[in-house]
UniProtKB/TrEMBL annotation:
Entries under InterPro entries matching the protein: CLS_N (IPR027379)
Cardiolipin synthase N-terminal domain: residues covered: 27-70
Organism expressing this protein natively: Arthrobacter alpinus
Protein's recorded name: Cardiolipin synthase N-terminal domain-containing protein
Main location: membrane
Pfam families reported in the protein's UniProt record: PLDc_N (PF13396)
Lineage, broadest ranks: Bacteria, Bacillati, Actinomycetota, Actinomycetes, Micrococcales
Subcellular location field: Cell membrane
Transmembrane segments: 50-68
UniProt membrane topology term: Multi-pass membrane protein
């Protein structure tokens, strides 16, 4: 197993990828939470609090909400 690297040991490319992935995660979560806050409970599949909690699960939660959580 490879030893863990510290931030200052990473290449510029690796640092950029980490920052971009983090920004994408934050943007997805913000969009999901904003959408949830503006929808009525009848417009959401399942309980809204469950989708709020799910939005904190990396990329999977917000993406799952946008695919399965919103009624058409």
């Amino acid at each position: 197993m490879a030893a863990k690297k510290h931030w200052n040991e990473l290449s510029k490319r690796a640092k950029t990828r980490i920052v971009v992935a983090g920004c994408a995660q934050i943007a997805l979560q913000f969009a999901a939470l904003r959408d949830l806050s503006q929808r009525k409970p009848q417009e959401v599949n399942g309980p809204k609090p469950a989708w709020v909690a799910a939005s904190f699960i990396n990329f999977a939660g917000p993406i799952a909400y946008f695919i399965w959580g919103r009624k058409k």
